[in-house]
Amino acid sequence: MNILVIGLGKLGLPLLALLADSNHKVYGMDKSRDLVESLKSQTFKSSEVGLMDLLAKNKSQISYVSSIEGILETIDLVFIIVPTPSEPSGKFSNHYVLEVVNDLGRSLEHRDSRIVINVVSTVMPGSCDGVITKAIEKSSGQQLGSNIGLCYSPEFIALGSVIKDMQYPDMHLLGTSHPWAGDVLEVALKSITKVSVPFLRMNLLEAELVKISVNNFVTMKISFANSLLQIAEYLGDIDIDKVTRAIGLDSRIGGRYMKAAAPYGGPCFPRDTRALTSLFKESGAIYSLSETTEKINEEYAKYIANKVISYVNQASTIGILGISYKSGTPVIDESPGIEIGKMLINSGFNVLLWDDEGPISSGLKAKNCRLDEILKEAEFFIIARNIEKVDYIVKSIRENGKKYLDLWRQ
Fold first, then answer.
1. What is the pLDDT of residues 44-53, one digit of tens each?
2. Quick one: which of 89, 62, 85, 74 has its CA closest to 8?
3. What would the CATH number be for the domain defined by 2-202?
4. Which of 15, 100, 200, 399 is buried most deeply by CB count within 10 Å?
5. CATH for 236-406?
6. Contact present, 95 and 119 (Cβ < 8 Å)
7. pLDDT tens-digit map of 256-310
8. Residue-by-residue DSSP string for 188-255
């Protein structure tokens, strides 16, 4: 199959590599000419597990371009994986998606063979059947169905394990405009999947609602567990991990994400939860679990910051260990370590930062340190996420007579 992947970011590039590894001829397109040139010259670097090896192994199957001009004639399937930034209301903006589909439509004006356009970017429910379909049909001069098919098939992945998550998903979600479009997409997705999983066919609107609902349900579990930790500390003599493990063993609930630890963060969970809150409000629903989940997450970060403040004096230097939002990635979007650090800085504390994934927080009035520096200079430590060297770090902290708070109780 000839496949075009538009948007070579943290999700698009791993998908491209896996499709190439499955013997598809793949074109990768991105508006960033610098990114395209670095991929062509093989100077591009990524910490995403397995990505660089797959790109090198399958370079003969991949072509990188900065424009779709002249390549759509032979393309069977297009994956659109471009940003959908959050608007002030919490909804996702379709600006970049519409830019892409308008370009595609103009290039498909005289197309007389079938092509499938698959939107992977997270969009608000109603987008695909609404503005995206209208844009494709207006720019191409063709109605969906005969030659052009539209799908919505978002991925459920975590940075740091994107390739593994794509190869071993729980399911594939296929929102489709027409059955034949879903058939084409299913062939491509099956080729990169190493386990037998359900391919759930539904209409475009249903698939859009599933995407933001899944992530919101996960954040509800996280916030619920973090609320229980506060109750456990109020009651005393409670091992919160025993409590949440017992709850998670109930087959109706499940143990994944049922861990009282840090607030949730990252590029997906917070904004998907806000988007669903916006949709609840728009629908006139009386109560919004997603809005409550957001408030719990915000208040829990304050709860942790206040707990730290109660442990130390105003002159203390606090070291935050782990500022990326999770292990395996340098991404710091809405990370718990950064958010708690901001609160401590606003309360007058000197804050130092260290992370084994190598991110740099330039927007925070805090010093980025080497591990030996922060262990020497800080007087109190917050271990904000799972860290590979945690045993060594804890031993060093204790040997120097200092104290720490490990949010994950590693």
1. 999 999 999 9
2. 62
3. 3.40.50.720
4. 15
5. 3.40.50.720
6. no
7. 999 999 999 999 999 999 999 999 999 999 878 999 999 999 999 999 999 999 9
8. HHHHH--S---EEEE-HHHHHHHHHHHHHHHHHHHHHHHHHHHHHHHH-S--HHHHHHHHHTSTTT-S
